[in-house]
Write a structure and sequence with these properties.
The chain has nine helices and seven strands, in the order αααββαβααβαβαββα. With about 250 residues, the chain is α/β, with parallel strands linked by helices.
């Protein structure tokens, strides 16, 4: 009996030591499982009832994401903005162009600059009526015809507007001008010139921004003035003063 009693006491002592260790080990495993679950990537949720397709949809609509179509559209808009033409600046090469006169004669800018400096005047043309400010500016240049000859400059005016009846409107514009034979007036019925030069005034009853340029024999812009309103026109005197510094010394 004494031995049995001692064995029981020994067993109790052993259990008292082993049981806490077993409990601690089980608690540690539970804690590890909990930490693994909490640190699972969001994509792991698919195995808990969310299909991969649902997860993909959620990813496409999450804040800060952009689908391919929107990205492509924004890229196209940026490209169009970068490619949009700007008016020629002083020192830059003037874009070449070819337009026709009232008698269907082709006029090319580089053909003119090969012979002389060119004073390029862009009118509003036909915005639905004959612009009185354009007429006033043209009269001013006509009165100074001989001075432009002395300065060795070719005057070229552009008359833009809707294609329908544009030639008739341009002919009407010249009727009271006593137009010099050495002055040129060309039509821009499709706005290709005004767009190339970044001068398209794309608004109701508008055509082009009234502008004046002096282009040297080297094809470079020596003078540029673009008006974003109907007025603010450059007169003949201003252009003649700008031409003289470019004249060769005798």
């Amino acid at each position: 009996m004494k031995k049995i009693t001692e064995l029981r006491k020994l067993s109790s002592a052993i259990l008292a030591c082993v049981l806490p260790l077993a409990v601690n080990a089980q608690m540690g495993d539970m804690a590890h499982d909990t930490m693994t679950t909490n640190s699972m990537p969001a994509g792991g949720m698919a195995s808990d009832g969310m299909h991969d397709s649902d997860s993909s949809k959620m990813g496409n609509t999450m804040p800060g994401t952009m689908n391919t179509n929107n990205s492509s559209q924004m890229g196209n808009m940026a490209s169009e903005m970068m490619n949009a033409a700007s008016p020629p600046q002083v020192g830059s090469m003037a874009p070449d162009f070819t337009r026709k006169t009232l008698d269907d004669q082709s006029v090319r800018l580089t053909d003119l600059t090969a012979k002389s400096k060119v004073v390029l005047v862009v009118l509003r043309g036909w915005p639905g009526y004959q612009c009185p400010l354009c007429s006033r500016q043209a009269h001013d240049f006509v009165r100074n015809d001989e001075k432009f000859k002395v300065a060795g400059a070719q005057v070229l005016m552009v008359y833009p507007g809707p294609a329908d009846d544009l030639k008739a409107h341009a002919a009407e514009f010249l009727q009271d001008k006593n137009w010099p034979k050495d002055f040129l007036l060309v039509l821009d019925p499709d706005y290709s010139f005004t767009k190339t030069y970044g001068l398209r005034w794309d608004a109701p009853k508008e055509t082009a921004y009234p502008s004046t340029f002096i282009i040297g024999k080297d094809g470079k812009v020596a003078f540029a003035h673009v008006s974003k309103q109907h007025g603010d026109r450059v007169g003949a005197e201003t252009v003649l003063k700008a031409l003289h510094p470019a004249m060769p010394m005798m």
